[in-house]
Amino acid sequence: MGRARRARRIAQTAAFGGGVGVAGLGAIGALSYGVLRVEAALTRRIVGQRFEAPPVDAGRYGSGSGEPIRIVVLGDSTAAGLGAEHPHETIGATIANGVAAFSGRPVEVTNAAVVGAESPGLESQLDRALAETPAPDVALLLIGANDVTHRIDRSVAVRHLEMTVRRLRESGAEVVVGTCPDLGAVEPVPQPLRWLARRWSRDLAAAQTVAVVEAGGRAVSIGDMLGPVFSADPKTMFSEDRFHPSAAGYARVAAALLPSVSAALDLFGERTTPTRPSPQRGEGIGPVAQAATRAVAHPGTEVAPAEIAGQSRGRQGRWAVLLHRMRPAVPVSTADPQPVSHGPIAGTETPATPATTADTVDTVDTARDPGSIEGRMPSREDAPTR
């Protein structure tokens, strides 16, 4: 079963309140599961001791005029900033400073993230955040890693994330979700755990993306954003425990999220003149499950709700726009090229009439256009990754 189909199935099961097994372990078997438990125990010995607590980054940033922009941060240790030495080094603080600079207004941060949090704990975090900030302008969520490492049922995790996004949207807040990072990129994790962690985390990230877009939010792929840089300079990008990001690592993640947060707040007028997907960069509009599958392999990719010819859904589900808002900072191997497209996302439907919205792309017959994503990428969605 391809990743897009798995993502749809997990999200659909989540919507109906069912389950698909503990983190998808049923197909692995008891023997393999026993090996994983041993590998996980070894990993815990390799990874350094946890920090006592993350820095407290709640407060006001920037010194502009006007009403402050209210940002709520929810999630796990990454959202809390565990591994950063100072409050201004967290993802929330870095994004707040960026938003303040772009908008010319002060920014108020409310951080309700909890170290070790799993997706089922998001609602209690949201309750605390809304009690302090009843009407946030934008919410930033980073969640998923503990759902994988603690073997939380993926459909359960996705259901709680979707409910949280819907509550935030109902409160009037824009929502940006940093999806589950690729845990296979964490160097201290041994094989075969790394291979399985990569598959589980990417499957969860794809399902999260589908659920977030269906709920009206924007999903941004974190993927293996720190993986290549970790290999080149682990002392700089990761903190002392070799697992949580350092200040430099958090800055890199924040750089991927800031453009989407800025767009959600309409700091650059995208509501009036939406960003037009660039086929040359592999961007386009298509079914959300296929966009989600593309996004997990390319960190910094945003997937958001979209329309084609005034319609929000097609035969394969919700339309979504895929944008590579962040350019790769690490050279890409020629053996693993970035996809280049001159048309919509591979496998998308061609509307009966040309798209009329400003953020859609011209339709192309991908079977005849060798420059399309479909023409450049393997046909299997779940092809082995490097």
From TrEMBL:
Keywords: Membrane, Transmembrane, Transmembrane helix. InterPro entries: Ester_Hydrolysis_Enzymes (IPR051532), SGNH_hydro (IPR013830), SGNH_hydro_sf (IPR036514). Pfam families: Lipase_GDSL_2. Residues 332-386 are annotated as: Disordered. Residues 377-386 have a biased composition (Basic and acidic residues). CDD domains: FeeA_FeeB_like. The chain crosses the membrane at residues 12-36. One of its GO terms (molecular function) is phosphatidylcholine lysophospholipase activity. Residues 73-252 form the SGNH hydrolase-type esterase domain. Residues 350-364 have a biased composition (Low complexity). The keyword Transmembrane applies. PANTHER family: SGNH HYDROLASE-TYPE ESTERASE DOMAIN-CONTAINING PROTEIN, THIOESTERASE 1/PROTEASE 1/LYSOPHOSPHOLIPASE L1. This is Lysophospholipase L1-like esterase. It comes from Humibacillus xanthopallidus.
